[in-house]
Write a structure and sequence with these properties.
By secondary structure, this protein is mostly helical. The protein contains 7 helices and 2 strands. The protein has one domain. Strand 1 and strand 2 form a beta hairpin. It starts with a strand and ends with a helix. The protein has a two-stranded antiparallel sheet.
Length: about 150
């Protein structure tokens, strides 16, 4: 029996993740960042997506740092996979249409979970980079105050 991620099989979620990642360009990344508020609204208010709140915030932070050139070392496949998963969440007509009450976003959660799984090691490297960067900035500020 196939493992399921929020109502769809893991294989189906992975296939949708690959399909949507293939639609991503650098322009798409910028468009997705512009829709940050709308997407965060989904993750904040739709129960099946709420468990990914911190993750989606981290993904948007990563995308903005990548676009600004502050964190260029993330592989394009990871950027495309994460943005593709966000595109899937935005799409009202996917495996389980979003307008169906209660279950409409379960496939979205599954696709986002698969994308997070794929990007896990790279997201952890990004988190470590952010921690080190924050420590460096704090140390510089403390030196200026001394």
């Amino acid at each position: 029996m196939k493992a399921e991620r929020n109502g769809i099989s893991e294989a189906e979620a992975a296939e949708q993740s690959r399909k949507y990642a293939g639609k991503v360009s650098e322009e798409t990344v910028g468009e997705m960042v512009e829709k940050e508020g709308k997407l965060k609204g989904f993750f904040r208010h739709i129960s099946v997506l709420q468990k990914y709140w911190k993750d989606v915030c981290e993904v948007f932070s990563l995308l903005k740092d990548w676009m600004a050139g502050r964190y260029p070392i993330i592989p394009w496949t990871v950027v495309a996979t994460l943005v593709g998963a966000l595109l899937y969440v935005l799409s009202p007509l996917d495996l389980i249409p979003d307008f169906i009450p209660v279950v409409g976003f379960t496939d979205d959660a599954g696709v986002f979970a698969v994308a997070l799984s794929f990007a896990g090691a790279d997201l952890e490297k990004y988190r470590e980079w952010k921690r080190q960067r924050a420590e460096t900035i704090d140390a510089e500020w403390n030196e200026e105050d001394a």
